[in-house]
């Protein structure tokens, strides 16, 4: 795997004997697997400085010409943009929550909440109409 334009150089070199050499810049960010004549290369944690034109090349024995196909890799930093937008979203949610709490508090202050939670006393008049109570009463 070669870089050709921005920072030309070898990223990964694998021999037919499975001996590999990885560029120090991609030391812990590169994985590869080999299945017969096919090699799968995976680059992890790409950064803006990794943007370049990458070529997978095979060197044919006793030939100065490389058989190759390339891919343009363009990495954009998107972490900062996400952080800014997420902070804006969080602050908007906090403002909405505070306004909602203020609205609820104002509403509760204007309404007499106690009268809704007090037990209502029934308007009942009780009169004892039993025989014993009438006998002891003097009627004139």
TrEMBL record:
Origin: domain of life: Eukaryota
Keywords, ordered alphabetically: Membrane, Transmembrane, Transmembrane helix
Family matches, as InterPro entries: CD7, Ig-like_dom_sf, Ig-like_fold
GO molecular function: signaling receptor activity
One cellular component (GO) term of this entry: membrane
Entry's transmembrane regions: 87-111
GO term, biological process aspect, one: adaptive immune response
Gene3D superfamilies per record: Immunoglobulins
This protein's name: CD7 protein
